């Protein structure tokens, strides 16, 4: 099964959350499986078939707001953008026919909803965007009190696999010294660290005032049959995380 629905605890009943894996699908090596990324070098026909299969798993009439992700902080209103995706790293909507989506292969997908299920958002949070404030941009774009926003953190690189240089730790700690708790020295390379990307995101979200933050316990790097991983493979496909609201 390539498309999985998640029911985060205590989320509004009218909000649906989905994530994909690499299992199944039409793509061939090195993108083997259910690749939904048109920008990685895979055959367009294979990706289109995978995206069509994904659409079949969503409520009838749903359109997907794909993005051209650039590791920035821009968050835009979701729109049907399959052919000419908007350059941004997050989208939000109150529409019931558009699914906000982000593509990942180690970066952290963050899905957001207010407690009433009136507005939802999807955010691509690599370390650069996260450090620069993409989550802050997304919560602000939703125009609801942060205390009313729920967050779900999807599959991403795990804390034992994300080795980074000192410039990454400084990007977070110089902004908030509490981020020091999310880094530990690497045993493999002097002066490098293992970073906990989901923990950094949760720290940012709770700092904004979010109370309910839930994380998916998986590491994209360590499960090659289940997840794509750019850190592990270089040339690889992309998974999707999506959120939509029903009437």
Mean pLDDT, as a whole number?
A: 96
Distance between the termini: 27 Å
- Runs in which pLDDT lies below 50 for 5 or more consecutive residues are none
Number of domains as seen in the coordinates: 1
- What is the assigned CATH homologous superfamily? CNF1/YfiH-like putative cysteine hydrolases
- CATH fold title: CNF1/YfiH-like putative cysteine hydrolases
Q: Number of helical segments?
A: 6
For the largest sheet, list the strands in their spatial order: 5-7-10-9-11-15
Q: Looking at the structure, what is the overall shape?
A: globular
Sequence of secondary-structure elements: EEHEEEEEEEEHHEEHEEHEHE
Helix content: 10-25%
Number of strands: 16
- What is the level-2 CATH architecture name? 4-Layer Sandwich
Over the alpha carbons, how many angstroms does the gyration radius reach?
17 Å
Structural class based on helices, strands and sheet pairing: alpha/beta
Text of the CATH class: Alpha Beta
- Beta-strand proportion: 25-35%
Biggest sheet character: 6 strands, mixed
């Amino acid at each position: 099964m390539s498309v999985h629905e998640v029911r985060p605890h205590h989320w509004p009943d009218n909000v649906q959350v989905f994530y994909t894996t690499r299992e199944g699908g039409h793509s061939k090596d090195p993108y083997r499986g259910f690749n939904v990324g048109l920008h990685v070098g895979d055959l367009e026909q294979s990706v289109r078939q995978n995206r069509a299969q994904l659409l079949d798993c969503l409520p009838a009439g749903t359109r997907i707001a794909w993005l051209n992700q650039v590791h920035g902080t821009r968050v835009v209103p979701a729109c049907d953008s399959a052919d000419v995706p908007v350059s941004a790293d997050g989208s939000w909507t109150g529409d019931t026919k558009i699914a906000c989506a982000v593509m990942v292969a180690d970066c952290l997908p963050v899905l957001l909803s207010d407690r009433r299920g009136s507005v939802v958002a999807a955010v691509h949070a690599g370390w650069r965007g996260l450090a620069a404030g993409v989550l802050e941009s997304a919560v602000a774009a939703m125009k609801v009190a942060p205390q009313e926003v729920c967050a779900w953190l999807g599959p991403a690189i795990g804390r034992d696999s994300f080795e980074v240089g000192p410039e990454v730790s400084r990007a977070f700690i110089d902004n908030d010294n509490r981020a020091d708790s999310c880094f530990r020295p690497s045993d493999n390379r002097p002066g490098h660290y293992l970073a906990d990307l989901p923990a950094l995101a949760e720290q940012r979200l709770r700092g904004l005032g979010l109370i309910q933050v839930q994380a998916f316990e998986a590491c994209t790097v360590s499960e090659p049959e289940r997840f794509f991983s750019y850190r592990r493979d270089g040339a690889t496909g992309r998974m999707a995380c999506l959120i939509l609201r029903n009437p």
